[in-house]
Amino acid sequence: MDNDTQLFQLLQKELERSQRGLEMIPSENFVSMEVLRALGSIGTNKYSEGYPGRRYYGGCQYVDQIEQLAIDRAKQLFGVDHANVQPYSGSPANLAVYFALLNPGDTVLGANLAFGGHMTHGLKVNFSGSLYNAINYTADKNGYLDFNEIKSLAVKHKPKMIIAGFTAYPRIIDWQKFKEIADAVGAFFMADIAHIAGLIIGGVHPSPAEIADVLTTTTHKTLRGPRGAMILSHGTVSSPTKKVERTKENIPTLIDRAIIPGLQGGPHNHTTAAIAVALYEASQPAFKDYARQIVLNAKTLADSLMNEGLDLVTAGTDNHLMVVDLTNIGVAGKEAEKTLDEVGITCNKNTVPFDTRSPFDPSGIRLGTPALTSRGFKEKDMKIIGRLIAKTLKNITDDKVKNEVKKTVRELTDQFPLYPGLQYDRPAPEIYL
Ligand code: DSN
User: Fold this and answer.
1) Phi/psi at 284 (nearest 5 deg)?
2) Is residue 420 part of a domain?
3) What is the position in ligand 1's atom list of the atom closest to the CA of 25?
4) Is 27 in the pocket of ligand 1 (CB under 6 A)?
5) I need a labelling partner for 260 at 20 to 30 A (CA). Which of 60, 162, 339, 373 fits?
6) Domain CATH code at residue 22
7) pLDDT given at position 433
8) Same domain for 379 and 404
9) 53, part of any domain
10) Alpha-carbon distance 405 to 392, whole Å?
11) Same domain, yes or no: 19 and 79
C-alpha cells in the first residue's frame, strides 16, 4: 500500500464507481492504459517554457521531441499546418484565441450556453462575456441552428469573431454556412470542435479544418486522450519575436504568443506525452470503427428512448449525444440526474431550447455514448440502456423499480471490464507491471 493510503483508497473507489456504472456524460471517456501510463509519467517533472527548439530551460532535448511528436501527429490527423498542443484545457485554449485575435471590448458572436454553447462562447459571467461584447445566437423552435438568426445578428453587430461549436447540439454542423456569414461581415471564424474531434478524425462528422480560421479542441472527449487541449490553424509561425498584425496569415504566430508568454507558463509535458499517445491511437484504423460505433450507439439509444415515449431535442441525433426533454413525463432535470446516479447511470442535467426552468434545475438531461463505446457496448446494449433510463425516470419514486434497475446495471457493467488489473489499493510498483 502507498503511504498516502487515504488518497489511494479514494482513487480505488473512483475506479470501482467507473467500473460499476454506466458513464453517459457525453464529454467524458475512458483513456487507454497507454494514455494513462504517459499521463502518470516523468514528463510532469520538467519545466520547458517556450516551444521545441526555443526553450527558456536546459535539459529539454527529450520533451522537445515529445512535444514535436504531438504537434506532428495533430497536424497530420486534422490536416492543418500548425498545432499548439500546450493549452492546459479547453477554456484556456479558447481564452488564448480571444487574446490572440481580439482586443477587450471587441464583439464576438457565439452560441448561447442554454442552447448548447459553452461558457467561453460569450456567457456574461465568463471572461468571454465580461471582457468582450458577446452576442449570443440561439436555435429554432425544434432545436436546430437557425442560420437566419445567426446571419442577422452578424450583420447587425459586426462581430470580429464568430464561434461555432457546441456542448449539447445533437446534429451535424454546417461549417460552410458559418464561414459564409463570417466572410460576409469580415469576422474571424473559430470552430470549437471539442465535443466532436474524435468523430471528425473518425470520418463520421465533417471537418472544419479547411473552412475555419482557427480550431480549438479539448483532447479528452471523443478524441479519448488526457485532459488537455490544442489550437489548430493554417500557415506558419512567421517570427517568434517580430510584431505582427492581427491577420489570418499571422494566426499561428499570434496563437503561439498568446499561449506563452501571453497566458501560460510551463507546458504540462506529461499531458503532452499522453496527447501524443492519444493521437497515435486515433490514427489507427480501429479508431474509425470506434467513431462509427459511437454514432450507431447514440442513434440506437435515441430510438430506444423515443420508443419509450421520451422527447428528444431535434427528435434524435447525428453524433455522440442527445438532449432529453423531460417535460412530458413531469420530471425535472436535477431530479432525473440524481435518480439515475442512484441506479448507476451517470449523466448531467441540461437545459432544453427555450427552457422555462432555471439552468440550475432545467427541463432536460444530456446523454452520450463515447465512454460506453470505449468499453465495448454495442447497439443491443443501448436498447437495454434506453429502456432502463425510461423505466427509472417514469418510476422516479419507486424504490423497488430502482433497485431492479440498479441490479441490471451492475450485471451489464460486469460484462464490460474496465481497466482489468488496475488497482490503486496495492503497492505502487504493481500498478505499473
Ligand atoms: N464541460 C464540458 C461538457 O461537459 O460539455 C464542456 O467543456
Assistant:
1) -85, 150
2) no
3) 4
4) yes
5) 162
6) 3.90.1150.10
7) 45
8) yes
9) yes
10) 7
11) no
CB count within 10 Å of CB 185 equals 18
> What does the block give as the cell for 392?
427509472
106 φψ region: left (φ > 0), alpha (ψ -120 to 50), beta (else): beta
349 pairs with which residues across the strands? 365
Give the residue, out of 27, 219, 337, with the most ligand 1 atoms within 8 A of its beta carbon, to mutate for a pocket test. Answer: 27
Cα–ligand 1 centroid distance for 26 (angstroms): 8
**Best mutation site among 221, 323, 348 for ligand 1, i.e. most ligand atoms within 8 A of its Cβ?**
221
Q: Would residue 367 be called left, alpha or beta, if left means φ above 0 and alpha means ψ between -120 and 50 degrees? A: beta
Whether ligand 1 lies within 6 angstroms of the CB of 90 is answered as yes
Cell numbers found for residue 97: 484565441
71 and 157 together in one domain = yes
Q: In this structure, is residue 85 part of a structural domain?
A: yes
Catalytic residues: 47, 49, 192, 218, 221, 227
Number of domains, the chain: 2
Q: Which stretches of 24-146 are assigned E, i.e. beta strand?
A: 50-51, 54-55, 82-84, 107-111, 133-137
pLDDT tens for the 433 residues of the chain, in order? 557 999 999 999 999 999 999 999 999 999 999 999 999 999 999 999 999 999 999 999 999 999 999 999 999 999 999 999 999 999 999 999 999 999 999 999 999 999 999 999 999 999 999 999 999 999 999 999 999 999 999 999 999 999 999 999 999 999 999 999 999 999 999 999 999 999 999 999 999 999 999 999 999 999 999 999 999 999 999 876 788 999 999 999 999 999 999 999 999 999 999 999 999 999 999 999 999 999 999 999 999 999 999 999 999 999 999 999 999 999 999 999 999 999 999 999 999 999 999 999 999 999 999 999 999 999 999 999 999 999 999 999 999 999 999 999 999 999 999 999 999 987 765 555 4
Specify the pLDDT at position 2.
Answer: 56
Same domain, 387 and 407: yes
Are both 79 and 182 inside the same structural domain? yes
Q: Are residues 278 and 390 in the same domain?
A: no
Ligand 1 midpoint to CA 125 (Å)? 16
User: 141 and 56: one domain?
Assistant: yes
Atom of ligand 1 nearest to the CA of 348: 4
Domain that holds residue 172: 40-282
- pLDDT recorded at residue 429: 58
Can you state the angle between helices 61-78 and 269-282, rounded to 10 degrees? 40
* Terminal-to-terminal C-alpha distance of the chain: 15
The residue count of the chain comes to 433
